[in-house]
Structure formats: C-alpha cells, structure tokens
Amino acid sequence: MAQKQATRTNQAITLKGSTALVTEFFEYGVNSILYQRGVYPSDDFRMVKKYGLPMLVTADEGLKEYLQTILAQVQEWLLTSSITRLVLAIKSIETDETLERWQFDVHTDEAAAAGSSSSASASASGASAPAAGGAAGGAGNGTKGGKKKEKTEKEVQGEIREIMKQITSSVTFLPILEEPCTFSLLAYTNDSPDVAIPSTWDDADPHLIDRGKVEQVRLRSFSTNVHSLEAMVAYRVGE
C-alpha cells in the first residue's frame, strides 16, 4: 500500500504527513523482513527503489491484499493516536513456536498531533491472514511524547533508510530459519473506549519467546514532528 510522497520534502511534517511516512515505513519494513528471512519464496518479490535503496516488495496478490487491509487500519489508528506498537512475529509452521519477534514501538507527541491518547494498558485485536501469513491484534501502553524538533520529510527518510539497512543486514546475526515459517502481525492499541476495533479483528496471543531462549537486538529509531518509532528484534536461541 504505497503512500504518496510530499512534493516539497523540505517542508515541516504534519499529522497526516507523519502518518503517511510511518505507514509507508511499515509497508516496506514488513516486506523487507519477509524477504530477508525467507518467509516467502524470493521469486514472490520484485525490486523497487525506495529511500535511495533497492527494496523488495511482494508480488503475491493474496499477501498484497492482506497487507493493504492491515496497513489501512494501522493508518487510521495512527491518525487518532490509538496505536502504540506493531509486531511482526515469525513462527514455525510445524510447532507454532515464535522464532523471531520484530517490535516497532510508536510514540505520539499529543501536542503536535493536536489529539488525545490516554495512557493505559491496551486492548487486543486481530484479523485473518492469507495461507502463508498471519494477522493478530495485541495490547500495549500509550506513551506520551515530548516536544520534538521540527523535521523535514527528507530528514525522516534518511533515518528510515538506516533502519532499512539494518533489516537487510540482519541475516548476518540472526539464526538461519531452516524450517518452513509463517507470520503474524500484532497491533497494540491503547485502552481508550474511543478506539474503534473492526469486527474482523480478534484478540490474539502476543507470540512471546520463552525466557532463557531469547536474545534481543535494538535497531535504529526515527522520528517525525508527530511520531517517533523505536525498533528491536528478539530471536529464539538454543534448545
């Protein structure tokens, strides 16, 4: 679900523009992870140029439709300061164990967004997925952001480019996934009664990796004038 870019990249970013940037990051980030980690066959992806980098995006119609549906809802939650976290969990098809958990925490500067988002323990929701993928919902805590320095879209895209480079290089430190895998997308929202949860979304397991069997790597972050995003990946190790 490609988001249109602002024509003048040196202008300060608004709530709508920030939402488009974050949603677009999720789109390309999820596609890149699914490709780099071999969740879908490499032949199912095509190369495009984005963030000054060659990026891989799915050509599978079922997966594209699924991601478009998920990201459309994520975009709505970003506009209303409702989403606090998005998680991509890669699971073994045979055992259903979570092998990797890519976590993206979203913080909103409420003053900049000119909206309200209560800080509370979260509610969970999820949606059905295509055969090789998965969808889910989750829970999280709303986080109050501080006053951010004014940034341009060009500056934000430069920060996003560095995260994309890390995702691409993740194959150098993550264990090889030697078994067929599937994935789930978890959306964490705050506990405000005003948060609209579609009827097609259901409560979902957080897909955590057992303590004692997990390592974590924190990735780079990026921020706009409205949203800031922190990324990390946790992965299963040993027996």
Show unreliable segments: 1-9, 115-129, 131-146
Per DSSP E runs of 2 or more residues, the count of β-strands stands at 9
Determine the fraction of residues in helical runs and give it as a percent range: 25-40%
**Average pLDDT, all residues:** 82
Q: Structural class of the secondary structure composition?
A: alpha+beta
Measured between the Cα atoms of the first and last residue, the distance is 38 Å
Q: Could you tell me the strand content as a percent range?
A: 25-35%
Word description of this protein:
With 239 residues, the protein is an alpha+beta fold. Helix content is 26%, strand content 29%. It has 4 helices and 9 strands; from the N terminus they run αββαββαββαβββ. It has helices at residues 15-36, 61-79, 110-113, 153-169, and strands at residues 45-50, 53-58, 83-92, 98-108, 123-125, 136-139, 181-189, 214-223, 227-236. The strands form 2 sheets. Strands 3, 4, 5, 6, 7, 8 and 9 form a 7-stranded mixed sheet that branches. It has a two-stranded antiparallel ribbon with strand order 1-2. Helix 1 (15-36) packs parallel to helix 4. 42% of the residues are buried. Mean pLDDT is 82; it is low at 1-9, 115-129 and 131-146.
Highlighted features:
26% helix, two-stranded antiparallel sheet, alpha+beta, 239 residues, single chain, seven-stranded mixed sheet, disordered N terminus
Quick description:
This protein is of the alpha+beta class. It is built from four helices and nine strands; from the N terminus they run αββαββαββαβββ. The termini are far apart.
Write the layout of secondary structure elements.
Elements: H1 15-36, E1 45-50, E2 53-58, H2 61-79, E3 83-92, E4 98-108, H3 110-113, E5 123-125, E6 136-139, H4 153-169, E7 181-189, E8 214-223, E9 227-236
Parallel strand pairs: 6-7
Antiparallel strand pairs: 1-2, 3-4, 3-7, 4-9, 5-7, 8-9
Helix pairs in contact: 1-2, 1-4
